[in-house]
Amino acid sequence: MKIFVSDDAEKWFRDEMDIEEGDSIRFFVKYGGSTAVQEGFSLGLMKEEAEDPAVTTTKNGILFFVEEKDVWYFDGHDLHVGYNPTLDEPVFEYKKG
Question: Which residues cross the membrane (predicted)?
């Protein structure tokens, strides 16, 4: 599994979540919702330091990660984080790695 973050998504995190170089964003599993990879679960995000990261990527000094306990959710898919300008929010795509 890999994490890819677009330039526009990274800018959204900086602007909306007051993220700066040296900060970390965790992608985690939430109960409820539905995605292309899991029924009954969805993806959440928060500013948080990594404890047991399984997958990481760094973009412009910001660490994006998934903890080991949440890797099952992705079911072998890579996470592509983009940005939807109409909704002004990040969007998540799951692509088989």
Answer: none
Structure tokens at 57: 């990527």
| pLDDT at 56 exceeding the cut of 80 | yes
- In sequence order, the 6+-apart residues with CB closer than 8 A to the CB of 19 are 13, 25, 47, 62
Q: What residues form DSSP beta bridges with 55?
A: 66
Tell me, what CATH number does 88's domain have?
2.60.300.12
27-36, 69-78, 81-90: which has the minimum mean pLDDT?
A: 27-36
Q: How far apart are CA 1 and CA 8, in angstroms?
A: 22
Domain count, the chain: 1
The tokens of 59 are what?
């973009």
Find, among 91, 82, 26, 11, the residue nearest to 57 by Cα. 26
Say yes or no to pLDDT of 40 above 90.
Answer: no
Spatial contact of 56 and 68, defined as CB atoms under 8 Å apart:
no
- Among left, alpha and beta (phi > 0; psi -120 to 50; other), residue 53 is beta
